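pls design
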């Protein structure tokens, strides 16, 4: 049987894979696994949990279901309603909470949903802990009764303001004079995102902040920034920011409507943090999919880059292990461990704006430190993906390509996690060279590894 937990919690089609019954079982199992220490150190006091969600219609019944599972296992639950994923992480880390639950499928379309957990301290779970929860599903019988069952309360307003205060305090910069357009993706940051930027002093114009339960991520937000790119120059804004459905990602748009991706955002923030003395070991943590242009730009500015596999959990693991304070992905998932335990799109947007304000430069100027190299990605289907790293003919072709590209190019072969497919990615000095080298390599992979 396939593992239920994926790269970011349990995710699937709501009311199909992800049913209320499963949500109840996840709540019961998570309560047992994540509150062991709380029960051991308490003297009769019940453990505490918070549950938040994004704006999907299915989140309404899943919220009730997982809260029921937690309470039936003797956990007091505060339901905080619609809030970004990083808000749940922050509250779990700072409010004496034993576990946090976020109901969201992030940037996925609205029929999907997901459940992700945060342990005490506000960090996502390790694989081994997820496996322990999964092993308990459906097998719990000794439930508490009487006064030992948990209580469920609502606490939206207090949670919202706590998170907004944290965001504003993190920048310590007056953003007055900046006009910013926010594309909230009809998602979890529809209220708190604009509110935080306004509280920091910015003039804010908001689009796609009217969630109806069905329109989250629908042709808007960080996965579809085209509307924001048109809107920013039309209203004379200094910049725009786009969140995804649960607001753990942020992309930006400059005054002319040009997209500023996660690599450029990390680059401009890294330079600012280095100048402030807050960039741990003058190092930026990126994934193997970050553009080579970012790595070259950081080298030119005396900043070391450390690469990880794709996924924010791998970025965070490397950051915590090395004491690094900034890392992320090209998608706009940026982690700043000075102020957060996970990627936070609203926090990122505030720090981009603060960098613009403090530097006196435009966003285009700041983002311009990173010159993105042309990139070509080809998916080669129907191949033995397991042999991509061992076949001598493929390795010889990769070595020859790397020699041809030199320092201004890069080759990456990535086997798919779910399909008989190998992704061939090439970066080069010109698009023509990237296309040519990627095409040749894809041909070698197909010929050598065909099933």
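designed seq:
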């Amino acid at each position: 049987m396939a593992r239920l937990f994926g790269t970011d919690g349990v995710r699937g089609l709501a009311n199909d894979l992800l049913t209320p019954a499963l949500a109840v079982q996840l709540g019961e199992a998570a309560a047992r696994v994540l509150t062991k220490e709380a029960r051991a150190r308490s003297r009769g006091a019940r453990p505490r949990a918070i549950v938040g969600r994004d704006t999907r219609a299915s989140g309404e019944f899943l919220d009730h279901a997982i809260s029921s599972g937690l309470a039936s296992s003797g956990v007091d639950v505060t339901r905080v309603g619609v809030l970004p994923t990083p808000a749940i992480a922050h509250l779990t880390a700072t409010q004496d909470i034993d576990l946090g639950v976020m109901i969201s499928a992030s940037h996925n379309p609205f029929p999907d949903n997901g459940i992700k957990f945060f342990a005490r301290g506000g960090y996502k779970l390790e694989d081994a802990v997820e496996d322990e929860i999964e092993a308990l599903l459906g097998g719990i019988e000794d439930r508490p009764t009487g006064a030992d069952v948990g209580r469920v309360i609502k606490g939206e307003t207090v949670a919202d303001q706590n998170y907004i205060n944290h965001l504003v305090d993190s920048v310590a910069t007056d953003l007055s004079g900046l006009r910013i357009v926010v594309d909230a993706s009809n998602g979890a940051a529809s209220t708190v995102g604009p509110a935080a930027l306004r509280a920091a002093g910015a003039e804010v114009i908001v689009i796609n902040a009217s969630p109806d339960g069905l329109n989250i991520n629908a042709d808007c937000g960080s996965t579809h920034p085209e509307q924001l790119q048109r809107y920013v120059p039309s209203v004379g804004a200094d910049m725009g920011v786009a969140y995804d459905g649960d607001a753990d990602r942020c992309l930006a748009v400059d005054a002319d409507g040009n997209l500023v991706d996660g690599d450029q955002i990390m680059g401009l923030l890294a330079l600012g943090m280095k100048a402030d003395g807050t960039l741990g070991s003058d190092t930026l943590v990126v994934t193997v999919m970050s553009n080579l242009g970012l790595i070259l730009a950081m080298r030119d500015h005396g900043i070391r880059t450390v690469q990880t596999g794709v996924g924010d959990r791998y970025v965070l693991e490397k950051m915590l292990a090395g004491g690094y304070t900034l890392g992320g992905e090209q998608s706009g998932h940026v982690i700043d461990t000075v102020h957060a335990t996970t990627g936070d799109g609203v926090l990122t947007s505030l720090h981009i704006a603060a960098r613009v304000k403090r530097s006196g430069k435009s966003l285009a100027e700041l983002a311009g430190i990173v010159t993105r190299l042309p990139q070509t990605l080809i998916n080669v289907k129907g191949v033995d993906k397991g042999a991509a790293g061992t076949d001598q003919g493929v390795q010889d072709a990769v070595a020859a390509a790397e020699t041809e590209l030199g320092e201004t190019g890069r080759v990456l072969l990535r086997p798919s996690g779910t399909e008989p497919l190998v992704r061939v990615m090439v970066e080069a000095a010109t698009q023509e060279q990237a296309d040519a080298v990627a095409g040749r390599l894809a041909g070698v992979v197909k010929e050598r590894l065909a099933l």
